[in-house]
Amino acid sequence: MIEINGVSKWFGDFQVLTDINEIIHKGQTVVICGPSGSGKSTLLRCVNGLEPYQKGEILVDGSSLSDPKTNLYQLRRKIGMVFQRFELYPHMTVLRNICLAPLKVLKKSRREAEQKAMELLVRVGIPEKAQEYPANLSGGQQQRVAIARSLAMEPDYMMFDEPTSALDPEMINEVLEVMIDLAKEGMTMLVVTHEMGFAREVADEIIFMDEGRIIERGTGQEFFANPKSERTKRFLSQILA
Amino acid sequence: MGLAYNFDWGVLWRQPYGTWLLQGIWLTLKIGFLGWIIALFTGIVIGTLRVTPWRWLRFLAAAYTEVFRNIPFLVQLFFWYYAGPMIFGQYLGRQINQITGLNFYVAIFALGLYTASRVAEHMRAGFASIGRDQYQAVLSTGMTHAQMYRHVIIPYALRIIIPPLTTEFLTIFKNSSIAMTIGVAEITFMSYRIDADTFHGLEATTGAMAIYLLLGLTVVKLMNMLEARFKIPGLIGR
Amino acid sequence: MFDVVARNINFLMGGFLVTLKLTAFALGGGIILGMLVGLGRISRNAWVYQPVTLYVNFIRNVPLILVIFWFYFVMPIIAGRPLNPFLSAVISFIIFEATYFGEIFRAGYQSISRDLINAAYSTGLTYGQTARFILVPIAFRRMLPSMITQSIVTFQDTSLAFVIGLQEFVRRTSIVDNLEVRSIQLFGFVAVVFFIFCFIGSKISRHFEEKGRRANIL
To answer: Of A67, A237, C34, C56, whose CB has the highest number of CB atoms within 10 Å?
Structure first.
């Protein structure tokens, strides 16, 4: 379980997050949407300790991120993260991209790591690309490799930061399908996205953020059917237009 | 730890060492500035030749740059100092070698030619960063190539490349230290001489380092003032 | 005409070998130390950033010839006995060149997007592992042309070890010149040898620059 309690964050004088409260239970899929600059990406990066926060607390399985005794490196093994621009290691093959952390962090044997990697590549649909370099893959394929890379660490939670925003339209679906499968298999997911079709299908909860605050939240149906706040209504009309 | 060494920082200001260092500083400044003047003029010419429409001139300028950049400065200095006079033949060569302060003049000459090749490269970069349209605009007012370069392009490029030129100006003072190898009594030579006299080379060279640092800071300050004075309003890259 | 060179060729080339040896050590140590210096220069930890920055800015403002002298005077005091010129020169060069390679690596590290590093961290890799498997290899590949250029500069710089009596290429030429006074041929020879090596080196650097630009993979 991930608990976010009253978290606020400043970049210098500028406040990017104000009093964020949220609980994510095991097996839930939570979608965060909102205009750019609303702090969604920053929030994600606070949850796995990539960015510090000044006020409030974030607890992952009971460990507080602001507690100096918490080992952030260990914590990050439990939370996988997928980025908007894929961020595959350009100087390594697809297979090595996926195996690097299991080999070095989990200390798996080469055979074990590569076997798992191939299984994951099958799962995301591109086992034939194992020996290719990222530059030779399409955007959709690269993102699927990125998902496999995160899954290789067998995380308890997966976070996605606008995973399809940098993709050409025809490739968005191949990535969304992988994510939908993951959600249906019971992975706990925190997804920042504009893809409302995805949200409608698998989200247990949808959060709308604007200017660093949570403006509205609700389950899939009621969120789209009856948005309560003005800002939410305006945002949805722009997205779904 | 018990270092068997007595530090004697007085070697930096006690007479005659203090005077030696001051004389060394004066010489370093002279070599640096005079060398820089040669380097600037020669460098601007070579850099401009590099971009003229005549293939032969471009080749000559490129050859100059390649030759002077691919040979260590020490070797160039030795060549001009030891082999240079001989180029004029046995008789004249011997006459030249009798000139007092020959090493001083050779040092400035060598430093100027060497640095000119680097200035030329910066000029080339400066020209390249001026958009093609600017050239076409000037030419379309009826100026010749020579006029265009003289009145518009060169002054413009010079302002753009003030930052890398600052680095070159600093480098020339650093390279002036190499002149000590042909006996020019500049800062590094003097610190070595102090060591020869007192065996306190550590203090002498540390002091010399501090002097070069101060010199460097002053040069940067000067060039920053120059850049502010000649700033081109609205130009990105500040 | 060039028989003075031919007659002394073994002696001169012995010096050239010393030059090559010195270059090899200077590059090996300078590049490795430079990798670390570069990391220090992008560190968010003030205890690391400040001293490293001080070191880099200090060395880059001081002439190499003075650094060579300084180590030549300092090392005997620390070691308690006089040091051979080769070792003193190697240490001076490593300390000096590491600042230049350090700035090259720094540019390389800074060209790597923040999110790529975040991606590595989010799979659980430590700082050390990220630096070792991601930062350094990518920076190295990207900055290869600059590193080759700087290596050529190092190769030329070794001639300055002349001043502490090291029997490298230029000093040996100078010794022969003192005896035979055929300066044009001798120093011309040195110049030509350096020119050939450095010219080829710069062509290699340009080759990698073109290759990198065309591929644009990294």
So the answer is: C34
